[in-house]
Amino acid sequence: MKRTLYEKQIIDRSTTRYCLGLIPRLKKHIYLSYVRYVARRRGAQIGDSSVITMSLARKANKNLIIGNHSSIQAHLLDLRAPIKIGNHVIIGSDVEILTCSHNIDSPDWEFKAYGIEIEDYAWIATRVFIMPSCRIVGRGSVCGGGSVVVKNVDEMTIVSGNPATFLKERQQVHSDLIVESLLGGDFKQYVKIRKNKS
After folding, report:
1. What span, in angstroms and rounded, lies between the C-alpha atoms of 82 and 60?
2. Is the pLDDT of residue 197 over 80?
3. Which domains, from first to last, does the chain contain?
4. Given phi > 0 = left and psi -120 to 50 = alpha, else beta, which region is 109?
């Protein structure tokens, strides 16, 4: 059976090093479990082992839906309309997602709610700004750091710039990455891999 780099690093650790890695992960696990609890109490749906910030959890509502094993480092998500985030998604710090706008051709300037879906294995890098005109970020797509995303992003494409435009196709998703480990939320995986090392 072929092992991932993450698995090899855990299996190859001495017992002492493994235990030293276990302690901070357990502390983080307890904290992140509480963060998920706060978000769920407010109506959000948060999947197994997904990691979010406390500031996002405190403002969460039923419009926030996150799949399994995702890492959401941002808190500037406009939850007046649904934001559906898939599995193994990475959203970096200072990302801002707007889901609502106004009808600029209306004398009453009516409020318009759109919502967005971010599909599995997408990576939205640091300081990306997603406008309400973007309704879907496709599976495995990448939005480069500092980009302003004004339209839908096709799956397995890389976009960047202001406004974000197509750069190239992505060749592979981050399927071997334990996404929750990016923010120290990998306690369950850490224990499971060591336990099943034989």
Report:
1. 11
2. no
3. 5-195 (2.160.10.10)
4. left
**Tokens at 165, concatenated:** 């435009």
Contact between residue 178 and residue 186 where contact means Cβ atoms under 8 Å apart: yes
What's the pLDDT tens digit per position in 152-185? 999 999 999 999 999 999 999 999 999 999 999 9
Q: Following DSSP, what letter does each residue of the chain receive, concatenated?
A: -PPPHHHHHHHTS-HHHHHHHHHHHHHHHHHHHHHHHHHHHTT-EE-TT-EE-HHHHHH--TTEEE-SS-EE---EE-TTS-EEE-TT-EE-TT-EE--EEE-TTSTT--EEE--EEE-TT-EE-TT-EE-TT--EE-TT-EE-TT-EE-S-B-TTEEEEETTEEEEEE-----TT--GGGGGT--HHHHHHHHHT--
What CA–CA distance (Å, rounded) separates 181 from 50?
Answer: 10
* Calpha distance 6→25 (Å, rounded): 15
